[in-house]
Amino acid sequence: MMVSTSSILLSLVVLVTAHCYPSTAFVVSPGRSSTASSAAAFTTKSTQQFASTSVETDTPEILPEFPSAEAYLEYLETVSQLPKGFATGTADGTFISVEAPGLGNLKIRGTIIQLTDGPTESWAACFTSNKFPGAPIKVGRKRLASGGPLQALVINNKVSNVCSGGDGEADAELVCQAVADALKLESASLVLPSSTGVIGWRLPAKELAQDVVPKAVLNMQSESVLNAAKAIMTTDRYPKVRSKTLSNGARIVGIAKGAGMIEPNMATMLSYILTDATIPKAKLQSMLSNAVDQTYNCLSIDGDESTSDTVVSVASNQVEGDVTDEFEEALLQVCKGLAADIVRNGEGTSHVMRVSITNFPGTTRQARFLGRHIVNSPLFKCAVSGNDPNTGRLAAAIGSYMGKYMPDADVSQLSLSLGDRCIFSNGKFVLEGDEVEKALSGHMKDAEYGDSTDYPPHQKCVEIGVDFGTSVGETSVVVLGSDLTQEYVVINADYRS
Description:
The chain is of the alpha+beta class.
C-alpha cells in the first residue's frame, strides 16, 4: 500500500429534518446556500442513469450511474481526451525484489507523461508531509524549489522507493535519466519521478530504465489519458478520470490513484492534472495548493498518511487567453471529483460516508479533524459496513474528539442526523420504534455497492449530519470516508505478494 487521503470542503447537498435542523437543504460551500429545490436537482442528477446521458467530453460533479464495468470504461473514454501538447505511454516489466526474492518475478508498470512541444515553466506540486518521504518526493521537492522547467513525468507502481537499503534518490534519478535519453530531452532535471507501492523495497531502477521506459516511449500517444489512469493503479479497483473544458477551449484533465493508506495531510495519493491553458507558474502553485486543501485534505479511507503522496499540475500553455478565474474553479472541480472517486474506490469499500459538520465552534482545520475522527472510528466504520445503525458509536466518536481536543466547547445544542432522520437532539437520542431502526438501516443499504467491485455503480453516500447549533459557531465542512470491511483486511494482509 502506499498512498493517502483526507476529507472534503465540497459543495454538497445534505437533507435534514425539521426538528433537528432547518427544514431546507443546504450547501456546504463558502458564500453559497441552497433551498430544497436545489436538493431536488441534486437528487435527480445523482440518480441519472448512464443510458440516458449524452456523450460529452467533461465530467459532471456527480457521475451518472453505471450498469457495468464496460459502461463505466466506455464513459471514461469519452472524457479522457488529452489537452494539447501532452502525450502518455505505459509499459510493463518484471523484477525480483532484493528484499523478498522468494516471491519470484513480480510485475511492475511504468507510465510516462510528456510535454511534446518542449519544457514548461508552468507547473506546480504538493507533496506528503510524512516525515519519512520517499526518494521521489525528495527529488521532486528539489525540482520544485529550483524553479526549473518540466517536460516529463515518470511514474511506477509496485515499489514506492521509500527508506530502502540502496540510494533511493540515485535510483530515481537513474530512471529520470533513462526517460530523458529516450525522449531526447536536454536534462534529467526536466523529468519528475513518482513511485507508489511497497515501502522499504529498493526500486528496480535498472529494470525500469533498460526495459520499461524504452517500451513506454514506443507506446506514446496523444489522444487519451485513460491508459495512464489505468497504469498508475495498484490496489485500485478501477481508473479515475475527471475533466473540464474552459470557455476558450482550453482543457483540464486529471487522473488519480489511491485506494488504501489514504489520509493525506497536505497532498494526496498520486494525482496528475494536465491543462493546455496558459497559466503563470506562481498562480498555478497557489491555485493547486488551495484546491488540494479543500479536497484531498478532506477525506480519509483508513487514516494512514502515505510516504509517497504527490499531486502535480502541469500547463502546456498551448491555448491563449486569460481564463485564470475560470481555471481556478475548474481545477477545484476536477480535484473535488477525483477526491470523491478515491474514497469510493477505497480498498474493500462498500459504503461512502459523507459527514456534514455545521455551526462548528472552531476553525476549519479543527472541524476537518473532527470529521476525520468520525470516519476513522473502527467501530463506526464496521457498523456502517454491516448496515447497522449503531448511532451510539457516532456519538462516542464525536464525544471522544471534543473531549480530547476541545473540552471547553459548547455541545449542548448538538444535533445528529443519519440520512433524513434526526437521531440525536437536546442531549438525547431520538430512536424510538422499529420504524426508525428500519429506516436508518435502509438508508445504509441503499448506499451500499452490492457486488460491484470493478466500477462505481452509483454515487450515493451514507449521509451524516453534525450540527452544533446556530448560536455556537459558523464553521462548516464536509468530510468523506469509507467503511471497514473484511475485504480491506484481506487486501492488506496479502499486499506485498
